[in-house]
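Pilot study result, target chain (216 residues):
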Amino acid sequence: MTIFKYKAFNERKDKILLSVTAIIIILYIAFSFTYFTASSESVRGDVVRLHILANSDSEEDQEVKLLVRDALLNQNTRLLSGGVNTENAEEYFLENKEKLLETAKETLEKNNFNYDASISLGKEYFETRRYGDLTFPAGEYTSLKIVLGEGKGHNWWCVMFPPLCVPAADDVEADESKTAAYLTHSGEKIVNGGNKYVIKFKLLEIYEELRNELLK
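Predicted structure:
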């Protein structure tokens, strides 16, 4: 009888131990994801995305879209040299969006495209996106949106602020060296640690997509 009692006691002890371990693991995962979500929110608050929609998917329209992209990124780098920071970035783009629009229009005209361009600054939902070694979490960002012509072609997006995306020979490269200057420490860790957070990025994207649909 004593042996049975001892076995029953051990079984109960094992169950309690497993339950406590499971609770600790669940709490750790919940805390870790909550911290990741909060850090992702800080990234979204410190970043302004660039979103360019081409007139169509024709080769010519797609090529001029990239020319507009390069012109805007180059101009943005020059304009941002005036001491723009995370606190006044949105105000800066509101004040300078007409200059940026003029650059887009001049690029179209210079390359003999007779359609117009428009610009807007607002909130847009973006999926998880990787630029070189930088990964930006899914969610709603402030976005500088450029529509070329009818805006029915394949779009292109990157980061307008901080000035992380710079024109390269064939495409655009991400300048990882600037993240520390503009993002919070936790935000910088997320953006620069994409390979460490693959599962969390995916879970966050699912969460943000559901949240975005519910808020529509």
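One observation from the pilot: Residues 2-46 form the longest helix (45 residues). A full batch analysis is planned for the follow-on phase.
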